[in-house]
Design goal:
Blueprint (H helix, E strand, L loop, with lengths): L2 E6 L3 H8 L5 E7 L2 H11 L4 E3 L11 E4 L3 H13 L3 E4 L8 H14 L2 E4 L7 H8 L3 E10 L1 H4 L4 H4 L9 E7 H7 L5 H9 L6 E7 L6 E9 L2 E9 L1 E2 L2 E5 H13 L7
Helix pairs in contact: 1-10, 3-4, 8-9
Bound molecules: 1,4-dihydronicotinamide adenine dinucleotide and oxaloacetate ion.
The site of 1,4-dihydronicotinamide adenine dinucleotide has 33 residues, from helix 1, helix 3, helix 9 and strand 13.
């Protein structure tokens, strides 16, 4: 019998994940804000039940994936974890809020739930978490995207996205600030911080480049293990250029992991 997935959010990433769900996993429920429920119900045309709160879900899903962004994790994360369900998360930037982080970890502990932080648009989180065990001296992260990928974000206050003519750095700071200021664009900064040296000590630089069509992520880590540099040039999703295709694929991978006895 097929395992059943509950998805929080059903935007660009959610629809892509739904399209690519592995055999053996079906979408049972989608949770979206009231204002989007009618539209999402129309799009799904009966293929999954559309809810607006976790307590409306009458059965236990085999897996819950958050594809809703930071407000979605803040709103529904606790209810999922208190029910003892497993929650795979991409809006890791929400965890820069220490109070929310504490609420979710307490809910997971008390409810016997599990929060799985997904690697999203980047690679190397396995190596970084392993490297941390030996001690890390430095972790830096740089993102570079096309102007259209920064549209509608705080970048609009820092750089003229319509006029920018060459690669331009518009933000330098720590991972916590980046995740808070760019909630739809800098979850990766928080993911790297959570896997490495934390929000305050992870240095972040955000850039825009009018000549690129990719979402580029560069990570540098140095510690007792040695050092590594990762550069990932991802294709953005057509339906949302802020979001890399790999981020959606990392959710698909989490679905596959829930099905298979052997996994990376
Ligand atoms: N960790 C990573 O590498 C990445 C993380 N992300 C995160 O994933 C999020 C989703 O990306 P897209 O699908 O491209 O965005 P999108 O804007 O296309 O879709 C967001 C969806 O979430 C829903 N939503 C919003 N607030 C909600 C709430 N309180 N409860 C339930 N649903 C809610 C919306 O109705 C919409 O269906 C981004 O906002 C970002 O936070 C995105 C890319 C990479
Ligand atoms: O998808 C990406 O390239 C990264 C992203 O939006 C995020 O970190 O929130």
């Amino acid at each position: 019998m097929s395992k059943r997935l509950l998805m929080i959010g059903y935007g660009a990433m959610g629809s892509e994940v739904h399209r690519l769900l592995p055999d053996g996993m079906t979408l049972g429920w989608v949770v979206v804000p009231e204002a989007f429920a009618v539209e999402v119900r129309d799009r799904l045309a009966g293929r999954a039940e559309v809810l607006t709160a976790i307590d409306q879900c009458a059965e236990a899903p085999d897996l819950v994936v958050e594809c809703a962004g930071q407000p979605g994790l803040a709103e529904h994360g606790e209810a999922v974890l208190r029910r003892g369900w497993t929650l795979a998360v991409v809006a890791t930037g929400a965890l820069a809020d220490e109070a929310l982080y504490a609420r979710l970890t307490t809910a997971a502990r008390e409810g016997n739930g599990r929060m799985q932080l997904l690697s999203g648009a980047v690679a190397g989180m396995d190596g970084l978490t392993a490297a941390r065990e030996g001690g890390l001296d430095e972790v830096t992260y740089e993102a570079c995207k096309a102007p259209r990928s920064w549209k509608g974000s705080h970048a609009e206050q820092l750089v003229d996205l319509d006029a920018v003519a060459e690669r331009t750095v518009f933000f330098e700071g720590d991972a916590g600030e980046a995740a808070r200021l760019f909630p739809a664009n800098s979850n990766v900064a928080a993911t790297i911080a959570l896997a490495g040296v934390g929000m305050r000590d992870t240095r972040v630089r955000l850039t825009v480049d009018p000549s690129t069509t990719r979402n580029t992520h560069r990570i540098h880590a140095r510690g007792r293990f040695g050092e590594f540099d990762i550069e990932l040039n991802g294709y953005p999703l057509e339906s949302n250029p802020k979001t890399s295709t790999l981020a959606a694929l990392s959710v698909v991978r989490a679905c596959r992991q829930a099905l298979e006895p052997v996994s990376f």
